[in-house]
Specification:
The chain is of the alpha/beta class and 348 residues long. The chain folds into two domains: 75 residues, GMP Synthetase, Chain A, domain 3, CATH 3.30.300; 254 residues, Rossmann fold, CATH 3.40.50. It is built from 13 helices and 13 strands. An eight-stranded mixed β-sheet has the order 6-7-5-8-4-9-10-13, with helices on both faces. Strand 9, helix 9 and strand 10 form a beta-alpha-beta unit. Helix 1 runs antiparallel to helix 3, helix 4 packs across helix 13 and helix 7 packs parallel to helix 8. The longest helix is centred in the C-terminal third of the chain and has 23 residues. The N and C termini lie far apart (46 Å). Bound molecules: adenosine-5'-triphosphate. Belongs to the Mrp/NBP35 ATP-binding proteins family. It comes from Paraglaciecola hydrolytica. One of its GO terms (cellular component) is cytosol. InterPro entries: Mrp-like_CS, Mrp/NBP35_ATP-bd, NUBPL-like, P-loop_NTPase, YlxH/NBP35.
């Protein structure tokens, strides 16, 4: 035998590290802590959501390591999401809160929040959604459960509503939408604190918070009231929307919440008849903004009838059409968001 067992073990570790770094396009120094090799069993604990890639990762590792003198026999891939730092004290049980914001109304912030939440769930993590859009709560509509009524065992904490594996809370479950629209700023912020603090959340890796549109005082207060780990700005490609998205970035910078990136929604139109792609708004707007602020452009999602029908019809795309190209696009977004937050955790 040419190699001592130490050398062959070192080369095995080296190959595992290289394979993980290459597979996830991560710096090699990050991946060393993700795996444990015990005899011939390899356990990978991924610090971000990527369940749809676990099998491919196993196959890739198995092929790479098969050439070793003492090959690995079992490969197990697990998910172990870390806790990103926040300025405010964390909520017990909730590892990370991600705020979804937009400078402007109607750009698809709630649609993105719901699809991202389901996509994270599909990527193997525990997810909740909090509808902070106090003035126009649309999450109950998008989850198809407007008539659901939260219950409470102790009259102090309210149980969240379950929808297709997602836990949700929204002012829309408590008061009719027309009553909420007349609330003033302090009432709206109090309602959000109550929704966050008095909901009996189970253990969650991520709580997605659908913020009210805009970047005014209310949004600023809300962003300061909850321990947000990272924010995502949703925009459409037109100049006006992008100018508002800029204000959103500035708002989160002001409250020292890291912006994880931008989502460009309604980037282009896909014709439902012939599948033709057409840029009906301006092109490259999201990319320009991302470059200007050195932020990742996390996704470019089309204006597509399936997104609208599923969002407004309360039957999530992820649940009813798990292999739809847009379902997969949202899953890619979910993996990017989770990876982005992990990178923020490890570099801050
Ligand atoms: N990519 C898309 N393709 C087609 N329709 C979309 C897309 N994104 C959102 N929509 C539709 O656009 C409308 C507005 O979306 P949504 O409610 O998510 O926007 P919003 O930014 O949260 O709005 P608000 O400012 O009222 O909170 C909805 O009818 C939704 O179904």
């Amino acid at each position: 035998m040419f190699f001592s067992s130490k050398t062959s073990n070192e080369s095995l570790h080296h190959d595992i590290q290289h394979c993980l770094a290459e597979f996830f396009a991560m710096p090699i120094e990050k991946v060393g802590a993700w795996f444990e090799l015990k005899g011939k069993s390899l356990t990978i604990s991924l610090p971000f959501a990527a369940q749809s890639l676990h099998q491919l990762l196993k196959d890739t590792l198995a092929a790479k390591l098969a050439l070793h003198l003492s090959p690995v026999k079992d490969i197990d891939v697990l998910t172990n999401i870390g806790v990103a730092p926040t300025l405010m004290a964390k909520r017990p049980k909730i590892k990370n809160i991600i705020a979804i914001a937009s400078g402007k109304g109607g750009v698809g912030k709630s649609t993105t929040s719901v699809n991202l939440a389901f996509a994270l769930l599909a990527e193997g993590v525990k997810v909740g959604i909090l509808d902070a859009d106090i003035y126009g709560p649309s999450i109950p509509i998008m989850l198809g459960n407007v008539d659901a009524k939260p219950s409470s065992e102790d009259q102090k904490q309210v149980d969240p509503i379950m929808a297709h594996g997602l836990v949700a809370s929204s002012i829309g479950y408590f008061v009719p939408a027309e009553n909420a629209t007349v609330w003033r700023g302090p009432m709206a912020s109090k309602a959000l604190s109550q929704l966050l603090n008095e909901t009996n959340w189970p253990e969650l890796d991520y709580l997605i918070v659908d913020m009210p549109p805009g970047t005014g005082d209310i949004q600023l207060t809300l962003a300061q009231q909850i321990p947000v780990s990272g924010a995502i700005i949703v925009t459409t490609p037109q100049d006006l929307a992008l100018a508002d998205a800029t204000k959103g970035i500035a708002m989160f910078n002001k409250v020292k919440v890291p912006v994880l990136g931008l989502v460009e929604n309604m980037s282009y139109h896909i014709c439902s008849q012939c599948g033709h792609h057409e840029a009906i708004f301006a092109e490259h707007g999201g990319q320009k903004l991302a470059t200007q602020y050195n932020l990742p452009l996390l996704a470019q999602l089309p204006l597509n009838i399936d997104i609208r029908v599923h969002a407004d019809g309360g039957i999530p795309l992820q649940i009813s059409q798990p292999t739809h190209p847009l379902t997969l696009a949202y899953q890619e977004l979910a993996r990017e968001v989770s990876k982005g937050l992990y990178l923020k955790v490890t570099t801050s």
